[in-house]
Amino acid sequence: MLYKKGYTWGLTYKRFAVILFQLILIGGLVMGACPKNRVSKLRGRKRRTHYKARPVELTKCPQCLETKRAHRVCQSCGYYDKKVKVLEVETE
Ligand SMILES: [Zn+2]
To answer: In the chain, N or C terminus with fewer CB closer than 10 Å?
Structure first.
């Protein structure tokens, strides 16, 4: 293998960068985050106001026109996107 001038002792610039990056990663894992300031009750609660559950999205099945959840297999006919029959539904 050919090395550029100055990198003749087995440690290429790229490998050195990789090792340095790995060391930084390990350091981050060992030490973890260290918050500089305390987050107040108000600030934390304000942030958490965006953590909320969304209502279930309902659409009509193109096969049987029954209401079903979006991007899911229809529970009444077992079809997905009018093409593939995924589920075998019992009909009485
Ligand atoms: Zn259906």
So the answer is: C
